[in-house]
Amino acid sequence: MNELDPVIHATSRLRITAALATLADGESIAFPRLQELLEMTSGNLSTHLRRLEDAGYVLSEKAFLGVKPVTYLSLTTAGRRAFEDYTTQLRALLGDIRPPGRIR
């Protein structure tokens, strides 16, 4: 089995990637809304998003809502693929584990 992607595997980055994976292709979410959903500080969220951006998994787009700057976030095609690969590998790993009481 291949190693789980260390970029995604960190708990906070896994939560971010999973949340962004729920968006349809082409959809994005505003930074404050993602921060609220994940109950993360802005600094912590920013740090993990930067790591995901550096890996090419997350796209960050700056825009203005009136005069207020807003950052919108989405998974890139590579990010979506990496998350799908990660979940496939994790399922394969967990598939080898039997629930308690069912050992034969």
TrEMBL record:
The species this protein was found in: Microbacterium soli
Protein name in the entry: Transcriptional regulator
UniProt-listed PANTHER family: BSL7504 PROTEIN
Xref: Gene3D superfamilies: Winged helix-like DNA-binding domain superfamily/Winged helix DNA-binding domain
Boundaries of every Winged helix DNA-binding domain copy: 18-93
Lineage: Bacteria, Bacillati, Actinomycetota, Actinomycetes, Micrococcales
